[in-house]
Design goal:
Helix content is 44%, strand content 16%. It has 19 helices and 12 strands. The strands form 2 sheets. Strands 1, 2, 3, 6, 7, 8, 9, 10, 11 and 12 form a 10-stranded mixed β-sheet that branches. Strands 4-5 form a two-stranded antiparallel sheet.
Length: 452
């Protein structure tokens, strides 16, 4: 079959995409000329800032009037836009902000880890969610931001549900730099041509896909650079959102009958031709715009890319239906956290900046500079991105869940899973073979009786 013939050619591309899945478009671009990496940082545990010296009136951290914001997100940003962003936050907070941008993740990770427990630590820095954030929390390196969330972040239009992904032992230890929502973006012209409606049930979704296949159209486009786990998480949540969460938390085995049922459904859908071969995002967008592909499950920023930069289509969105009307639909998201170093001399200044960071005025500037948006109070012109944001702010109808890449509790098991999902999509493994291999890794890491 065509899918198997492409296995060798596409494996490398999908492998790169699976690795890139840890950051999405949040990964570091080229470092901006003139930005500097921090030097002379202290080893963890040395020169810890005096907690008394950092406190002002009423025991609150005193502001130094300045703060460094280390990041791996803004290194490709033009200086004029950096200045615009810094001025916006500085005018609102009264704090002088300096962005220290890194070209690559390892350099920034090393710099932060070497300085994070000292007074020389950056007041603000971007990090990664899931296990990466948990490690800093357990080391006591980052500030509890629960009160900032309650008083300044949630009231400014940030969904309180995303805070769960930054919460450990009931406390919130980071704020969002960016929140990337996902939904299905479809070609409305194709739907109109074949008299198709947005599916409300899983059965209707399968019927839409079959109708498109019958007319020679690939229903779902597959992005070769996106995580290989995307459809696994989508289908798992469509069947049972709690099962998805339990699997991520290693409370359920990959060979559990319920997981096998979902994986078999994925295999059945593949065999029916419901998915395209994996392709580059640019080719995928071209194919959807031209009507060769009808839909893709994708991020809000790729929805903007598709609708703004590829002609030939009229696009809209919907959220993956569930197998039962009693199950809420799930919107998956990726979040890039902002942390406050607990021992930084500039901790007080950092907290002052976070208090204004999510205000409408600053978030509007942030959206203009980065293309990202965290607040529902900011007007979004792109229809697809706007709808995804609206789904996320509607907890009565939709679950909001961190995607598998960050949600998986063990990195070794996650990596084995993403490898096997890739192999499965390329025809190199059956559904059962893929699950058996993942489970073997889980047994090796956790012990065979871990979920009994």
């Amino acid at each position: 079959m065509k899918r198997k013939a492409l296995t060798v050619l596409l494996a490398a591309a999908l492998a790169a995409g699976s690795l890139a899945g840890c950051t999405g478009s949040n990964s570091a671009p080229e470092k901006q000329a003139g930005s500097t990496e921090s030097t002379g940082t202290q080893a963890a545990g040395t020169q810890e800032a005096s907690s008394e010296a950092q406190k002002g009136e009423n025991g609150t951290p005193a502001s130094t009037g300045k703060v460094e914001f280390w990041n791996d997100k803004l290194s490709g940003t033009e200086q004029v836009d950096l200045d615009k962003l810094a001025q916006s936050a500085s005018e609102a907070s009264g704090i002088d902000i300096e962005f220290i941008s890194y070209t690559d993740v390892p350099s920034m990770r090393t710099a932060v880890e070497q300085s994070v427990n000292s007074s020389d630590a950056p007041g603000l820095f971007t990090w990664w969610s899931g296990v990466n954030l948990k490690n800093l929390v357990e080391a006591g390196a980052v500030e509890d931001l629960t009160e900032v969330w309650e008083e300044y972040i949630i009231p400014n239009g940030v969904s309180k549900d995303v805070a769960d992904s930054l919460t450990f032992d009931g406390k919130i230890y980071a704020a969002p730099y960016s929140i990337i929502y996902n939904a299905i973006v479809y070609n409305k012209d194709l739907f109109d041509k074949y008299d198709l409606k947005e599916p409300e049930t899983f059965e209707e979704f399968e019927n839409v896909c079959q109708t498109l296949v019958d007319h020679g159209i690939a229903p779902m486009g597959v992005d070769a650079t996106a995580g290989s786990y995307k459809w696994f998480q989508c289908l798992l949540a469509a069947y049972d959102p709690q099962l998805y969460l339990d699997l991520c938390a290693n409370k359920v085995k990959y060979t559990d009958n319920r997981v096998v049922e979902v994986m078999n459904k994925w295999e059945e859908m593949q065999n029916k031709g419901f998915f395209s071969i994996p392709m580059d995002p640019k080719d995928l967008h071209k194919s959807e715009a031209s009507g060769e592909i009808a839909m893709q499950e994708t991020s809000d920023y790729e929805g903007v890319n598709l609708t703004d930069n590829f002609g030939g289509g009229n696009f809209d969105t919907f959220v993956m239906p569930t197998v039962s009307p009693d199950i809420k639909k799930t919107v998956f998201f990726e979040i890039a956290p902002i942390c406050v170093a607990k021992n930084s001399a500039d901790k007080g200044s950092a907290l002052e900046v976070l208090k204004v960071w999510y205000g409408r005025e600053h978030q509007t500037v942030f959206n203009e500079v980065t293309g990202f948006n965290c607040s529902s109070n900011v007007e979004i012109s792109n229809n697809c991105a706007k709808e995804m944001s609206q789904y996320a702010m509607n907890p009565d109808e939709y679950n909001l869940m961190l995607r598998y890449y960050e949600n998986a509790a063990d990195l070794d098991i996650r990596n084995a899973a993403t490898d096997q999902f890739m192999k499965f999509q390329l025809g190199g493994a059956t559904a059962q073979e893929a699950l058996n291999t993942i489970q073997a890794k889980a047994d090796e890491v956790l012990g065979e009786g871990y979920a009994d």
